[in-house]
Description:
The structure is a single chain. The chain is α+β, with helices and mostly antiparallel strands. The chain has three helices and eight strands, in the order ββββαββββαα. The protein has helices spanning 50-63, 116-121, 127-140, and strands at residues 5-14, 17-23, 34-35, 37-40, 66-67, 72-80, 86-98, 108-114. Strand 6 and strand 7 (86-98) form a beta hairpin. The chain starts with a strand and ends with a helix.
Amino acid sequence: MSKIWVNVEGAIYKDGKWLMIERSKKESHASGTISMVGGTLEFTKDMQNSLEENLKREIMEEVGIEIEDDMGYVESKTFTTDSDQEVLDVVFLCKYKSGEAKVKSDEVANVFWLTTEEIMTHPNTPPWIKQSIELANKLLQ
């Protein structure tokens, strides 16, 4: 039996747009694609709301913004990375709180605020990101 990584991602919404990143060419999985901000769960002993706290940390580390504490569950799915690592991915709907979104990590090549339509029509948006944004958008309504 193989170990599964747990990944968390934030569908971050503000003023009719979603915060998206372009994944760095250095990334081993899905490099150069449009993605939500997130990352692999880091274990912290006795942490409450581990998924949510890890997501807040990842967002601050990668793009320098804070999100509201209240998050909504969007979906979970499994996938296998380009290096055959099995991953459980959990997506949360997040609301922007403060800060200026900018590249703060070598995992991120660029930062964008995009409408749903712009995400759906962008040539570098993978199908799984489109699916997550569609589901998150339904939760807003």
